[in-house]
Amino acid sequence: MKVLVTGTEGYLGSVLAPELLRDGHDLVAVDTGYYKAGWLYNTPGTTPRTLAKDIRHIEPDDLDGVEAVVHMAELSNDPLGQVNPGLTKAVNHAGSVRLATMAKAAGVSRFVYMSSCSVYGVADGVVDEHSPVDPQTIYAECKAMVERDVRPLADDGFAPTFLRNATAFGASPRMRFDIVLNNLAGLAWTTKKIVMTSDGTPWRPLVHALDIAKAIRMTLAAPADAVRGQIFNVGSDEQNYQVRQIAEIVGDVFPDCEVSFGPPGGDNRSYRVNFDRIREVLPGYECDWNARRGAEQLLAIFASVDLDEASFSGRGFTRLKQLEYLMRTGQVDDDLFWRQP
């Protein structure tokens, strides 16, 4: 299958692309290149040739012969969204809807969209795909709006699917240290301390980057009728953790790490998620990773690359810092389009 994937140089995209190539897909890789500065480790022979293009500049010719689009390239940072909500909406909502509409018009038969369990926001009890959404950030709000606006495009010739991923974790060549387990692991390695500013009682579902890639691969392989217009939570029931549990797991895996907690309060987002539906519709889907195994993977990677504090806290592996650097140095304009040098 000829598959166009946006965001192949991102945290998840750099994990997914080699998997799709190994599956035998003809890969059209697209990425605007914001995060080239962040490269944690090498994976020789598995990096696809990439079309350097902003998703807002993709044209119908780029979709010639494409059978499926996997759309991952959005501004993936809550702080950036709060600072400039208009820009986040322009890229994440308008840009994504434009791409889906263009894909359908170009005869693309499948569109797999990376949504997020963050659309649930604050929820009592356990939520599933039929539960109301309650996004608490512009990032999550845009995810919900894309689902709302792209889902009606589904018809006999066009099968959009929406994967509501739990919070990702795990090693990636294009590492991110601004997501919870990865951040705590980086702190445990570089400082041997995890100092929580709250009591860590909110709930978060987690899912490894490779298990997200697995869900995408199985969606592409499934009959179109099974996934057309469908929403799937991606993760496993066993990986609904309180944030304090994640900290304790990481602290237990990393040698000589001290873990402490603060008073109640802080982030009000808390949700536990049911993941039955993806296993029912995509038989054989199970997560291969859990938080402990992911922390052990990160410990091994950090040791192999001799991760230091400057790299951990630098702009290369933190989305907001890198985008602020590109804007401050004038390499991109206020709309995050690249300037001519």
Characterization of the model:
- It contains 12 helices and 14 strands.
- The chain is of the alpha/beta class and 341 residues long.
- The protein has a domain of 238 residues: NAD(P)-binding Rossmann-like Domain (Rossmann fold).
- Strand 1, helix 1 and strand 2 form a beta-alpha-beta unit.
- The longest helix is centred in the N-terminal third of the chain and has 21 residues.
- The mean pLDDT is 94.
Overview in brief:
This protein has 341 residues and is an alpha/beta fold. The chain has a domain at 2-175 and 206-237 and 270-289 and 317-328: NAD(P)-binding Rossmann-like Domain (Rossmann fold, 3-Layer(aba) Sandwich). It has helices at 13-22, 78-83, 85-105, 138-150, 180-190, 209-221, 224-227, 243-253, 276-281, 291-305, 309-313, 319-328, and strands at 2-6, 26-31, 50-52, 68-71, 110-116, 122-127, 159-165, 167-169, 193-195, 203-208, 230-234, 240-242, 258-260, 270-273.
Helix content: 25-40%
> Any low-confidence stretches, pLDDT <50, length ≥5?
none
CATH architecture of the domain at 2-175 and 206-237 and 270-289 and 317-328: 3-Layer(aba) Sandwich
Structure class: alpha/beta
Provide the β-strand percentage band. Answer: 15-25%
For the secondary structure, the number of strands is: 14
In the CATH scheme, the class of the domain at 2-175 and 206-237 and 270-289 and 317-328 would be: Alpha Beta
Shape: globular
Classify the fold: give the CATH topology of the domain at 2-175 and 206-237 and 270-289 and 317-328.
Rossmann fold
Calculate the mean pLDDT score and round it. Answer: 94
Largest sheet: 7 strands, parallel
Termini, distance in Å?
37 Å
Radius of gyration: 19 Å
